[in-house]
Backbone:
């Protein structure tokens, strides 16, 4: 994989004419958010196979997108990646985003208000009509994780053993069974057994969903 850093969306559009390139992921920051939101269908048409990710530092921009995702289905294809976390939780979130998982931190999910000035700077137009929504005041310190699959159980303590929690923690960091076994001084078979039991208890379908479940409850500990 090669990464290209561009300064403008015009440069990005020029890549669509280069048939030797296969663009798989497009990360854009707060500065380009308003343009991408307004013209997402146009930009996406140039790269139909690419995932689009808002790599944000300003919560206002991410919250604005989050408010309108359900209202404007086309924007639901944009994923989120906060750029203000420490390296360990950030790298875990990056892995999930690269796998196509939609992740939103609790301070975005929780009640809050998008200032009108921010709405004016980054309107999300649906044809000729701009749609708006408002949330109540307050904030949540937890992290919520949403996936394309059915919602995972919300039980914060589904009866996981200490070992099962340790295995999930390492899985959420991208560890493979062999590496986890070495780290925990266990056999690979034992690690697989702990992971299977944990997946069953939390109602996940695979290790990616299990990692998502774990990060949704423990991401705040890494801040």
Residues:
């Amino acid at each position: 994989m090669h990464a290209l850093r561009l300064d403008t969306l015009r440069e990005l559009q020029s890549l669509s004419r280069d048939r030797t390139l296969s663009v798989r992921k497009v990360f854009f920051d707060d500065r380009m958010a308003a343009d991408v939101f307004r013209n997402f269908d146009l930009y996406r048409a140039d790269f139909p196979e690419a995932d689009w990710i808002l790599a944000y530092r300003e919560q206002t921009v991410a919250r604005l997108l989050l408010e309108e995702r359900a209202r404007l289905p086309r924007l639901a294809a944009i994923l989120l990646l906060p750029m203000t976390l420490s390296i360990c939780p950030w790298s875990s979130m990056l892995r999930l985003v690269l796998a196509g998982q939609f992740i939103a931190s609790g301070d975005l999910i929780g009640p809050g208000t998008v200032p009108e000035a921010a709405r004016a700077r980054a309107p999300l137009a649906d044809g000729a009509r701009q749609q708006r929504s408002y949330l109540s005041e307050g904030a949540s310190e937890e992290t919520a994780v949403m996936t394309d699959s059915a919602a995972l159980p919300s039980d914060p303590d589904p009866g996981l053993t200490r070992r099962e929690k340790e295995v999930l923690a390492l899985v959420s960091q991208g560890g493979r069974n062999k590496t986890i076994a070495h780290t925990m001084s266990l056999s690979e078979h034992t690690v697989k057994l702990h992971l299977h039991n944990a997946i069953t208890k939390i109602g996940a379908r695979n290790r990616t969903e299990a990692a998502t479940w774990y990060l949704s409850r423990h991401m705040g500990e890494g801040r």
